[in-house]
Amino acid sequence: MREMDQGTFWDLISGAKKEHGQDMDASIQWLTNHLTALGPQYAQDFHDILHGYQELANQYGLWSAARLMCENGCSDDGFIDFRAWLIAQGKEVYFAALADPDSLADVEAYGGCQFEELTYVGNEALEAMTGQYAYENTDAAEYGILLEELRQDVVYGTGIQYPYEWDEIAGRFPRLCEKYLAPGTIESMLRSNRTIWLQSSKAIQEAREGGLPKWTPPQTHMKMGGM
């Protein structure tokens, strides 16, 4: 039975950030120490909740923003690490980014916006305590229930599932473009017929069906109930 709730999860994330700021190694050690003190079930729960929030953030619109922020673009694996980094910034930043990825212009992009180690901290704490692996212990049915619980607090912004291209990105992410793109970058990409996404991909084609979404700023960045 799950012992950790979302509030405790975010308290741990906040505690690591408060104590160690941008020091990722120290943050991992802080989380490992606290999960070890709380016990195996908490380590498993932290693992499952973290992966749930990563899954809910697996959205093309957020990936488009990540490509602007990450130092060397953002591969498939890089986007997993970006989502871990996003979670490490705390509850408010995470939910705000799902409502409006352009809000990340207010967040300092340290560490290349990649935090791979956070993805594994629950699993490694559990392994150290019990020799078991959180990935193997996760119950698929219970994880599905957890994912739906986590989803209740997410407010997705317009176009979050849309993979933006060079001729669209400035209109959707004006602040990120101003902050991270050198002048003339978009024009250069368009002249050379460069694309952000693999246009032959069926998944990308399906995601772009219907054309560019009309952007509507969210009224709120997150629901407070249950948090």
The tally of structural domains comes to 1
Taking pLDDT < 50 over at least 5 consecutive residues as the criterion, the unreliable ranges are 220-227
The whole-angstrom Rg is 18 Å
> What share of the residues lie within helices?
55-70%
Q: What spatial form do the alpha-carbon principal axes imply? A: globular
Report strand %. under 5%
Provide the residue-averaged pLDDT. 92
Got a strand count?
A: 0
- Class by SSE composition: mainly alpha
Largest sheet: none
Contiguous helical run count: 13
Distance between the termini: 19 Å
Order of helices and strands: HHHHHHHHHHHHH
Task: Give your account of this protein's structure.
This protein has helices at residues 6-20, 24-38, 40-56, 60-69, 76-88, 91-99, 116-130, 134-137, 140-151, 166-172, 174-180, 185-191, 202-207. It has 227 residues and is mainly α. The chain has one domain. The longest helix has 17 residues, at 40-56.
Features:
mainly alpha; 13 helices; 227 residues
Topology:
Elements: H1 6-20, H2 24-38, H3 40-56, H4 60-69, H5 76-88, H6 91-99, H7 116-130, H8 134-137, H9 140-151, H10 166-172, H11 174-180, H12 185-191, H13 202-207
Helix pairs in contact: 1-2, 2-7, 3-7, 3-9, 5-7, 10-11
